[in-house]
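hey m, so remember when u said the tokens were messed up on ur end? i reran from scratch. heres the input so u can diff it against urs
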Amino acid sequence: MFQGTSAINLDAKGRMSIPAKHRDVLAIQCEGRLTLTKDPSGCLLLFPRPVWEQHREKIAAWPIQARAWQRIYLGSASDVDMDSAGRILIPGELRAAAGLQKDVMMLGMGAKFEIWDAAKLAQDEQAAIAGGMPDALANFTF
């Protein structure tokens, strides 16, 4: 289970360093083989390849009525590999889709990660807080 937030800078080529706290686990879990895809919320999803392959099979089996959603997830998926320095190259079309410039945030979200433009994530979090807790979480407590 991945959790936590890491602030990361993209380099001029669009490469992102995987934080050390996740790098070793990913090297063991999937030999640094990862898959990126778009998420409709405006971020990118980063999966260890074996986890993505399970999701890919489910998405491919969706009915024809979900074809547009298959295009979003499967059509934009890109396999990436960590290099010897623990970096991945985010393809230009995915960087553009998520509005990634230089300052990005990588959030551990259980079996996957979300990669956000730092300013967009801050905006989305402020909007969520301003909107209040959703009814679905009315009984949530720590």
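this time it looks ok to me. The chain is about 35% helix and 30% strand. if urs says something different then somethings off w ur setup not the seq
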